[in-house]
Write a structure and sequence with these properties.
Chain lengths: ~170, ~450
């Protein structure tokens, strides 16, 4: 019961602030609502007893990426007209992509009961005291079963980082 | 009963902390002013109460009844939100800390130390948004400086924490301290370079001198706080000092043995247990000696009250040590009380020592220039901390190979730390050689 209340609370906050993120005209307000949406998502992770994902969401997205977002927004003080022009062009493409995504998610939910082996898997809830320790469980999966994807993702990030450094060096 | 224990006890604890923390912060400020005065051969605040002991309360009342000014062009909502965000993040981080083996609001959180670090890092939004919302150049530049500083130093601090966590093998705060008890050595001794990096990075993260660039009053008036007044300003102040307490607690937990007594497992050094009550008795006696010299009757009474408080605390500290000696049959009953009371004392003592070090630095070192600050962060501390993590990991593997535990693990970790330091200094030296014009003159920097 309490779990459901918490889930719907965080989900509502996430959805409302996600909508506000794209509708606000002021970029900084948008950023604040994006932070709220990310925090609400972190709250849902916590409600699912995935503490590690909860804190990673906060450290990486809220504490890292969003700080840089806000930093850039403040450094590059965009003019209102430029802002509107820039985003107007992508409107139809964005609509198409989000419709496709919505259709995909809808199909997944629709197929859940109807096609065996498809859709959202329905798992029985594990009792909270019998779950393995969260960060240990994540680490074990990451370094045994998913080692190769993990390493590839790391190398990708490293390449992006080095690329950024090289580009920044060239300009000065 | 179970329900009360699970939900209401942490809630009440949290409320108590939120209520008491402003008072503690007020007295930390008073102590800071007193230390500053001592280092500058002055007396410091002396007017309100004996030796200015009631100064924090007077300051708080003054701040609360001050006019609350919101600039005309400010973004009202964000201006209102920003200081609250700063304080909320700082207070939330306290929830994860363990002051003793039994006293922790969010008990046995699996992600313990990550929670504290991650949540307290959110306080930066308070600074950035506050600086932006005031719609003032000084504020904006202060906010940008602060976010650049925090992002750069958080990397170094995180890497330093990883070093300590390698020894602990867990993120849970209680287990980290237990690991230090089991290994018989504080991780700060095992990884001195990591402790040093965390020390420097934590000063930079709390925006304290010599890294208080965001609020450098000689260049930026008061940085991001320029437009804030009265209660809002005091919220920022509260957040800053709470953050100091949080980073000091994290360092204490991970590097200084948390609530453990020095040499907690060495039994012939058990007489250390008598030092805390003796210290309190000493302070009480000093207060008694000073009481007749106070000029006003109220001040004399106040001094006597302080002495009485010290004696009471000494009694509380002495009881769990003396009872097992007088009546050995009660030893098992007293044990948890001993751990709680003395653990709390040692934790507070270590945190205070760490904060004292902050203050000492503040009144000793001149402020860094912004490009110097950035160079220290990116060219020295971050490479140092990354190399240190690598070498400490290797040292641990080598230590395992030779079955080294506790103090003997120093044989491998100390050389590793020294090598890391040498390599980092070498990197710094080559950087300076390749960019000689930047090292000498002021660097061209858009937001310096």
């Amino acid at each position: 019961m309490l779990d459901q209340v918490i889930f719907y609370l965080f989900a509502a906050i996430a959805v409302v602030s996600a909508i506000l993120t794209v509708t606000r005209r002021n970029v900084v307000h948008s950023a604040i609502f994006l932070i709220t949406a990310l925090l609400a998502t972190a709250g849902i992770f916590l409600q699912l007893r995935a503490e590690f994902l909860f804190i990673v969401q906060i450290i990486l997205y809220v504490g890292g990426i969003m700080v840089l977002f806000v930093f850039v927004i403040m450094l590059v003080n965009l003019d209102v007209a430029v802002r509107q022009l820039q985003f107007a062009r992508q409107k139809w493409v964005a609509l198409l992509i989000s419709l496709a995504l919505a259709a995909q998610v809808g199909l997944m939910f629709w197929s859940t009961g109807k096609m065996p082996g498809q859709g959202v898997p329905v798992l029985a809830a594990a009792p909270a005291d019998k779950l393995p320790l969260n960060s240990e469980a994540v680490a074990e999966q990451l370094f045994t079963k998913y080692l190769l994807p993990f390493e590839i993702a790391s190398v990708l990030l490293l390449v992006a980082m080095i690329g950024a450094v090289v580009m920044a060096k060239k300009r000065t | 009963m179970e329900f009360v224990k699970q939900y209401w006890a942490p809630l009440v604890c949290g409320l108590v902390i939120v209520a008491v923390l402003p008072l503690i912060v007020g007295y930390v400020v008073l102590v800071e002013r007193k230390i500053m005065a001592d280092m500058q051969a002055r007396l410091g605040p002396m007017r309100v109460g004996p030796h200015g002991l009631l100064q924090p309360i007077a300051d708080a009342v003054k701040l609360l009844i001050k006019e609350d000014i919101i600039p005309e062009d400010a973004d009202k909502l964000v201006f209102w939100l920003a200081p609250v965000l700063s304080v909320a993040a700082a207070l939330l981080a306290i929830a994860g800390l363990a002051i003793g083996p039994a006293f922790q609001i969010a008990k046995d959180v699996n992600i313990g130390i990550l929670f504290v670090v991650g949540v307290s890092a959110m306080g930066i939004f308070g600074i950035v948004l506050g600086g932006w919302a005031s719609n003032s150049h000084y504020s904006l530049i202060g906010a940008l400086r602060s976010s650049a500083q925090l992002v750069s130093y958080e990397t170094a601090a995180g890497m330093a924490l990883v070093c300590g966590l390698l020894f602990a093998g867990t993120l849970n705060i209680t287990s980290i301290v237990e690991a230090q008890r089991n290994q018989g050595i504080w991780f700060g001794l095992l990884a001195p370079v990591a402790f040093f990096v965390y020390l420097v990075a934590s000063i930079a993260e709390t925006n304290r001198a010599p890294f208080d660039l965001p609020e450098a009053e000689s260049e930026l008036v008061a940085g991001y706080m320029t437009e804030f007044s009265g209660f809002r300003w005091s919220l920022y102040f509260l957040a800053e000092y709470t953050n100091m307490i949080v980073v000091a607690s994290v360092a204490t937990t991970l590097f200084l043995g948390g609530w453990l007594r020095p040499f907690s497992e060495t039994h012939w050094l058990n007489f250390i247990d008598f030092l805390p009550p003796l210290l309190m008795v000493g302070i009480g006696v000093y207060c008694l000696m000073r009481a007749p010299k106070q000029p006003v009757r109220v001040q004399q009474l106040f001094m006597l009250a302080v002495a009485g408080l010290c004696f009471a605390v000494a009694l509380v500290l002495a009881a769990p040590v003396l009872v097992p000696i007088i009546k050995p049959s009660l030893a098992a009953v007293v044990k948890p009380y001993y751990e709680g009371i003395h653990g709390g004392f040692w934790f507070v003592f270590k945190v205070s020592a760490y904060i004292y070090f902050f203050m000492w630095l503040r009144f000793t070192l001149p402020r860094y220039r912004f490009d110097q600050l950035m160079r220290l962060g990116w060219h020295f501390l971050i490479p140092l901390s990354i190399i240190n993590v690598l070498l400490i990991g290797i040292a641990m593997i080598v230590g395992q190979y030779f079955h080294l535990v506790g103090w003997s693990l120093l044989l491998t970790t100390i050389p590793a730390s020294i090598i890391a330091l040498i390599v980092a200094l070498f990197i710094l030296a080559t950087e300076q050689k390749s960019e000689p014009q930047k090292a000498s003159g002021a660097a061209p920097d858009s937001y310096a």
